[in-house]
Specification:
A seven-stranded mixed beta sheet has the order 4-3-2-1-5-6-7, sandwiched between helices. It has 224 residues and is of the alpha/beta class. The chain has ten helices and seven strands. Helix 2 packs antiparallel against helix 3 and helix 5 packs parallel to helix 10.
Length: 224
Amino acid sequence: MIPRGMVALDLDGVLIRDESSWGIYHKAMGTTGGQRDINMRDFFSGKIDYGTWAMRDAALWKGRSIEPVRRALPQINLTEGALDLVEGLRSTGVLPVIISTGISEIANRAGDLLGIDTVVSNEVEVLDGKVTGRVRIHCGFGEKGSLVREMAERASIPIGRCAAVGDAENDLPMFRAVPLSIAFNPRSEEVARAATVVVRDRTLHRVREILVEHLGQVKRCIRS
């Protein structure tokens, strides 16, 4: 059966409390500060593109065991209300998906905990238990909008029945692609201004209420 709608959910700072899954990697690998900060500064100053930033970060872990990251996975905490949000969407006949510029191990972990099968994120390559230093980019910094449209089309869901939840500048293209966007604890005023609705809360319960009410109305319109 074709879903009634689709909601694209950001990972870092939305579904999980941590603001960066790349940061989780760096902390586990002991590479916070130093070159990591230089890489970030170079990207946001426009000196390098997103792919180069990701490859530079991954190069810091080249040859290292992935085990410290895997040991950190059980410590990742879902934002309160995340499971309730996903269950509420499903009860309304809506498809929840995760679209993240974060790293697949963390994104897939959240997907497993929430029962979300469709997860798009970036893959830090691991071979024989060690990081190779390569990254497969499936979601670039400015690509969330095109990904939402592509995923909706593949699921035969009109974009008018889609919504998005995010908190950062890389979510802006996703916000522009859908009729309803929710900035959850936005990290800047630019993000807050771009959203249809702003929710500042420690839980996702209000986000659930807004989405279920909005998409429930869409559902009733389809039936009538």
